[in-house]
């Protein structure tokens, strides 16, 4: 009887300890926890958006623009990392997907959504409609870019490596040439008159959404299929993974997010689009961000997008110290990238995330010399006596 009472008492203590551990935020349902984090994130963005405008610094509008461009480039880099890093494909047409989203969102705003907003009286009501219709335009631009990704991906993703890169590069150039010949969206003159609705809040709202989508995706069954295709496509096919289907999925998701970034870019000051903004050089810039951070690393893409957006602006002041006033930014920029690729070809983080690079906890540090890899070979490591 005493043993039974002691056993039931132990079970009660274990159950209470589990309930205690699960209490708090982790004990909430996943959807409620996500809503809570979303509310906190929106509150932080609102505070920052008003706080940055209130900072009494000369040229704050210039710094604010750089910060906004960082957010757009983070969205582009993380979305391309889904295709190139997680799925293991090599796309050179990301600027084309961005252009599709930018021009389609701008087309909707200029010819349909903008005139509708002007019907409302100036004030809170018009401001609410602007923000609502900006989201509509951006999402429609992303959807149209996703359709373009599907059209390109389905026939071309049976190719691999350099051949796929050539096809996607050709797609980007085809999109640019088509835009040059459509007068409805400005053609070679450029597309002007776009309402400047994009602001700090919406750029970093969609930026955070892109990061969450990428992080959740790589941990899902679809993301595991992406990783399987990346590591060994033949082995993945042998295990029953439909490699073409998952590569097309990666292209659709990545192109949708690139289209969203394009829609935000189109509505940001000076709200002007020109086909020269979306040449293959733009694709190379985004690829440099992904490769610099490390293929497959989300936080690596974020850090490299911030660095490569701020670096050309930081090097702008070097021009004042050059003889003849020549601009050395692109030369210094290229040399830094070459040196980094020679010294660390896997990128800043490799395939790890930022929290994986940080110091390990003390209780995870190996206490056995065999765990530290000191043995010369597997045989000697297994045969080594235990450390006392």
What does this protein look like?
The two termini are 43 Å apart. With 388 residues, the chain is mostly helical. It has 15 helices and no strands. It has a single domain, classed as ABC transporter involved in vitamin B12 uptake, BtuC (Orthogonal Bundle), CATH 1.10.3470.
What's this, in brief?
The protein has 388 residues and is mainly α.
Explain the layout of strands and helices.
Layout: H1 2-22, H2 30-54, H3 60-86, H4 94-118, H5 124-156, H6 161-180, H7 200-219, H8 221-231, H9 233-238, H10 243-266, H11 280-293, H12 298-314, H13 329-343, H14 354-357, H15 378-383
List the defining traits of the structure above:
388 residues, ABC transporter involved in vitamin B12 uptake, BtuC, single chain, globular, 15 helices
- CATH first level: Mainly Alpha
Here the CATH topology equals: ABC transporter involved in vitamin B12 uptake, BtuC
Q: Please report which band the strand proportion falls in: under 5%, 5-15%, 15-25%, 25-35%, 35-45% or over 45%.
A: under 5%
Low-confidence stretches: 1-6, 17-21, 370-384
Compute the number of strand runs: 0
Question: If helices are DSSP runs of H or I spanning 4 or more residues, what is the number of helices?
Answer: 15
